[in-house]
Amino acid sequence: MKLPIYLDHQATTPCDPRVVEAMLPYFTEHYGNAASRNHKYGWAAEEAVERSREQIAALLGANAKEIVFTSGSTESINLALKGAAEMYADKGKHIITCQAEHKAVLDVCKHLEQQGFEVTYLQPDKSGRVSLEQVAAALRPDTIVVALMWANNEVGTLNPIREIGALCHEKGVLLFTDATQAAGKIPVDVEADHVDMLCLSGHKIYGPKGVGVLYVRRKNPRVRLVAQMDGGGHERGMRSGTLNVPGIVGLGKACELARTELESEAKRSAELRDHLEKRIFSELDFVHLNGNREHRLPNNLNISFAFVEGESLLMGISDIAVSSGSACTSASLEPSHVLRSMDVGEDLAHSSIRFGVGRFTTREEVDFAADKVIAAVKRLRELSPLYEMAQEGIDLKTVKWQAASH
Amino acid sequence: MAYSNKVLDHYNNPRNVGSLDKGSTQVGTGVVGAPECGDVMKLQIQVEGDRIVDAKFKTFGCGSAIASSSLATEWIKGKTLDEALAIQNTQIVEELSLPPVKIHCSVLAEDAIKAAIHDYKSKNSAESATNEAAH
Ligand SMILES: Cc1ncc(COP(=O)(O)O)c(C=O)c1O
Fold it and tell me: Which domains does chain A have, with CATH numbers?
């Protein structure tokens, strides 16, 4: 076993060796510019890019012509939301999104608010999910885009994208979905799911970092975007800049692998995740699942260990690489905006750990991680005045706390 | 984030973990911080005359908060109440090499010492007041 054990696959994933192998020739041998139309080098690069487009389209149930290459999801989100807002501003200036979205979406929305757009931030339920009814109630005649993530990166909760997509299509509103965490992990079909724009990122699906995609629907309806980067007019004019051919080849291969192995991989990772969850829940008291047991990514597990602060827990489990929803790094001590939006309680938000199993995670590693976590939580609870109070039967909600003097 | 060796040492081998009898008149208890802020410290002192003869703590908080309170108990043991009251958070910052974002942990530890001493003093002045009334 190689330590620390990597269980942070929502943050990023290792490149699959098969992906690296597919990429290598495009650095040194087929190094042409995909836009060079006059020689073999250019043709080889273009051919590789078009093959990648096909592989990505196949994963999404899209047409290859609808795939726009970008540097990753952050850029795709900027292009989708700013590009659509600018293009359709005459039609309306209202956008709907959710408080639990990734910062990339929230910050773009904030930017658009400064440009005179109006944004409705739906509050998810306690499991992190937005309902069809909430979206229906928020829709207005001047709504131009609904932006909702497919799967949440912290708690793994899945939104009912298919139902929301059908509603958006019925109302003539564009649906953008951030599928950075969902693509390659759960079935995605932009036709059946009525998605108009969708982003994914290479590094979350065992592909390279710095390359991603924006899917932009070409018919029923045809989505038009105002480019956010001026230049040579690559990618149907939507994203200028010489294409990152090796990265694109890697992303294509990653999507192909994700598609062919999706079912078996989802089953395998869910088994590992469930094993970890079962061990933690059976060997510790006062643990809370953050997220939605039914509608959840197969490889995500987000747990709050009551009475134990997240960062101290991370210190105690330094042999495993995971993330905490706690952010005890500033005077303001703000925990994750996702957990806050779900209203799990600030104390529990400070106690949360996100585990993400991956393609190369083994059962042995999961058991090792479970042992470490359980031991660390028990030790820190011996140190915790809150655990002591809870055991004395004191309701922590009724205690008058004295915050620090500054 | 990288932690200093002293923080790691206190985190891995915290000194004086535990609880004293909070009902005893010889014991002062300070509880500071709040769960929703991500740290709560409970620091207790046992006093004989005006000297702190024992100190215990329990802390919910990050590694630096645990280290700050562990260090605080180490420092106040054997000190007089006035000496303990003179301990400042900046001394804790220095000893543990806390980065600026963790200064609040040292502030909390200083607050915990003061709160425990305050509790001890008010308990005993109230005690002597009731004793006098009974006479
Ligand atoms: C849900 C979600 N959206 C967007 C991003 C940003 O992706 P990228 O790193 O490709 O810019 C991430 C990754 O952190 C994510 O998890």
Answer: 5-9+262-390 (3.90.1150.10), 17-258 (3.40.640.10)
